Amino acid sequence: MITRAFRSLLLFVCSVALLTAAIVGRADAQSKQASKKILYLTHSAGFKHDVLPHSEMVLPELGKKAGWFTVDVTQDCAKLNAADLEQYDAVVFYTTGELPITDQQKADLQAFVENGKGFIGIHSATDTFYKWPWYGTMIGGYFDGHPWTQKVTIKVDDPKDPSTKHLGASFEIDDEIYQFKDWSRSNVHVLMHLDTSSVDMTKKGVKRTDNDFANAWTRTQGKGRVFYTALGHRPEVWDDARFQQHLVEGIRWATSK
Question: Which of 23, 111, 120, 248 has the most crowded CB, counting CB atoms within 10 A?
């Protein structure tokens, strides 16, 4: 016969077991998130942005704050090889020019992305590898000048995306604004774009005739996920909580399966 004391003990043991399972499950989930490793490449083979040292401090701190990804910062393009890339879930480029890598390294980076890893491009990542057609296709387009460096209004195309839903229908920001060539809205999922009513469209250097100045987008390349944001020229932008959340959520999407 089961006594009342034994029933109470049994209930206590079951409760402890369930609580332990929940804690272990939550710890496992957090461990899986924390396992995301990001390689942040800031090599400048062309124009070198003054903001790079600041960004090299901010991005790892964002990883620590988020708690689910860590960042290795490098300016060494030799890291773009199959053996080194194998340990990462995504690479982030804030780069310019024709980076000094071999054809084998290009094949390794292509395989890295197309086999399911993430690629995140920030600002001048589109001012990179003009002589490598795959790269231009992968990232979605190439830099074609920055007619405006001022406070502008950015309109959000996808208010449900985690990288933009905190921004509202539109927002103002002071940054260097890119336009793109070899770019088509049909080849990417646009997250946000420039409100052309907030700038002088007669300014010298404006080239696009369709008035379509995308500012951030996503796309897939093979099994890989690609996130690009054109923001990030100024230190003040890197310190802006809105940009930080935009970037962190873009990294989260690019590293999700």
Answer: 120
Domain chopping of the chain, boundaries:
30-254
Residue 150 pairs in a beta bridge with 175
CATH code of 30-254, in short, is: 3.40.50.880
Check: CB of residue 219 under 8 Å from CB of residue 226: yes
Contact (CB, 8 A) for 71 and 40: yes
Q: Which two tokens stand for residue 102?
A: 């071999």
Residue 161: other Cβ atoms inside 10 A: 20
Query: CA 53, CA 74: separation in Å to the nearest integer?
Result: 11
- What percent of the chain is predicted at pLDDT more than 70? 86
Q: pLDDT tens for residues 6-19?
A: 454 444 434 434 33
Q: The tokens of 200 are what?
A: 């002088």
pTM above threshold 0.70: yes
